[in-house]
Design a protein that fits this description.
2 domains, three-stranded antiparallel β-sheet, globular, 8 helices, single chain, alpha/beta, Rossmann fold
Length: 312
């Protein structure tokens, strides 16, 4: 009888230990699955050292993550499985009018698509304008924030810094992101001549800010502005990278701007590809609408393949 009780205790102990080990293994796997997050700048980002607002993450009604009030720029890395890795990297810049980041729809979902095809993808959280701390107030003021405040309304909420200033800071974040990925390329199995950048709307402006102004270490090898971005009044750089331009025709401003961007690249005899879908509107990202534009990212994949970037 005594021997049976000892055997039962031993069996229970074994099961408890196994259970604890299993929980520990699951926790370790969950931690391992979390994508690494890297600070873009070694210290405080230049130009915003005195900012004190706190970053806010929230979700849309569809459960998609959004981020606003960004002070500290970061890169979230989505690295491919080693056997699939191509040595190509893409920095992804979500849009959001420099007021918020459409983090999932124009960032994480895109990065995961690229990673599944062997591309190391890094979602850039660049600096944004200030918005009200209260989510309720932010939602109420959003229509006002998306247009210039009327001069007759002195009480209108004016985000700081202004549009041009924040665009310059965000472009600096983009350049530093390219530089960082290039510096650490060997660590991630990336070729230093296969580092690109893409972005949506405001993120496309960041993308073109990097394309139009860079140093050797921060020059992207290819770029994809999606429904946004322009050259401004500057000439196409002599070292301009291949460009992939895409938007919807019913997104009037970006459609005209995208056609102009294509024409400028073509006139400068630089590689460029343009896609304008009849319908899709603005800000579609990876959201499905049961329209031909739903397959836009496949066209991006075709373009990357045509450049030899989807082969090891």
């Amino acid at each position: 009888m005594k021997g049976r009780r000892q055997a039962m205790r031993a069996m229970l102990t074994t099961r408890v230990v196994a259970g604890v080990m299993m929980v520990g293994a699951c926790a370790a796997a969950a931690l391992a699955a979390e994508p690494p997050v890297l600070r873009v700048w070694p210290g405080a980002a230049p130009g915003s050292e005195t900012w004190v607002r706190k970053e806010i993450e929230y979700r849309t009604g569809q459960g998609k993550a959004m981020v606003r009030n960004v002070v500290q720029p970061t890169l979230t890395a989505y690295l491919p499985e080693r056997e699939k890795a191509t040595g190509t990297a893409m920095i992804v810049c979500p849009g959001g009018a420099f007021l918020f980041h459409s983090w999932d729809n124009e960032g994480v979902d895109v990065a995961k698509w690229l990673s599944a095809r062997g591309v190391a993808a890094f979602v850039l959280k660049y600096r944004l304008r200030s918005t009200p701390v209260s989510q309720e107030e932010f939602q109420q003021r959003l229509p006002e924030l998306l247009r210039p405040p009327a001069a007759a309304n002195p009480d209108a909420f004016r985000p700081e810094p202004d549009g041009r200033a924040i665009a310059a800071l965000a472009a600096a974040d983009g350049r530093q992101a390219v530089k960082l990925v290039r510096q650490r390329a060997a660590e991630w199995g990336i070729r230093t001549d296969r580092i690109g950048i893409m972005g949506f709307s405001a993120g496309a402006a960041v993308t073109m800010g990097v394309v139009m102004e860079h140093e050797t270490e921060s020059r992207p090898d290819f770029a994809a502005p999606i429904y946004g971005g322009s050259t401004g009044t500057a000439p196409v750089p002599a070292d301009a990278p291949p460009l992939f331009v895409l938007c919807a025709a019913d997104d009037s401003g970006p459609a005209v701007g995208s056609a102009k961007l294509f024409s400028e690249w073509k006139s400068a005899a630089k590689p460029v590809e343009l896609h304008i879908y009849a319908k899709g509107g603005h800000g579609f990202g990876m959201r499905k609408q049961n329209l031909p534009i739903d397959g836009w990212i496949e066209r991006l994949g075709d373009w990357l393949g045509s450049l030899g970037l989807l082969k090891p």
